[in-house]
Amino acid sequence: MLQSIEITATLAVPESPFHNLHWSSGLELSIDCFICERTGRTTRFELGAERAICSGDSRTGRHYTAARISVFDIDIGADQISLRAVVDYWWAPFHDAKRDVAATALTRESRSPWVRLHLGYHCPEHNASGAFSDQTNLVRPCPVPCEHCAVSIADRREVPRVRLLT
Q1: Rounded to whole angstroms, how far apart are CA atoms 40 and 114?
Q2: Residue 101: strand pairing partners
Q3: What confidence tens digit (pLDDT) does each residue in 22-78 have?
Q4: How many domains does the chain have?
């Protein structure tokens, strides 16, 4: 069964100094993997890739899985930067023998999966690049300082939202 998940996130951005903050094209999402038959696997997605990489487990290791980013929209405003991504992936029923639980398809009522989104920036004072991430399990609000000049470059006020589309 094909499932589609919409991920939306917004970060507050201070007026100055400008650090050319931008969303990176990859993300991680915790989903069930019917290939290695494990629930809650961290799966790495990269924009443009036709398949994602499941973290697997000690027995199977990392492997490709039938999943991809189908939509990746960004919006940069004067005081915020937003992302909307849609992830499509195949799900099939299985039993996770290691945890002794059945895999369950996501529903509108089920708990949202964990997600991590990546961002990059450029420090104008030190002419150097940096990176950080935002994820669903961080305590909010959570300011992000530049690793080069220590000025605040973003504020993680809202939890990224994950919504089942199909």
Answers
A1: 9
A2: 96
A3: 999 999 999 999 999 999 999 999 999 999 999 988 777 899 999 999 999 999 888
A4: 1
Domain that holds residue 56: 2-164
pTM of the prediction? 0.91
- Find out whether the peptide bond into 141 is cis, omega within 30 degrees of 0: yes
3-state SS record for the chain: CEEEEEEEEEEECCCCCCCCCEEEEEEEEEEEECCCCEEEEEEEEECCCCCEEECCCCCCCCEEECEEEEEEEEEECCCEEEEEEEEEEECCCCEECCCCEECCCCCCCCCCCCEEEEEEEEECCCCEEEEEEEECCCCCCEEEECCCCCCEEEEECCCCEEEECC
Classify each residue of 24-48 as buried b or exposed e, where b means 16 or more C-beta atoms within 10 Å of its C-beta.
Answer: ebbbbbbbbbbbbbbbbbbbbbeee
Burial of 140 per CB tally in 10 Å (0-12, 13-18, 19+): exposed
108: part of which helix (H) or strand (E)? none
Largest CA distance in the chain: 53
Q: Quote the DSSP letter at residue 158.
A: S
Two structure tokens written together for 56: 């697997």
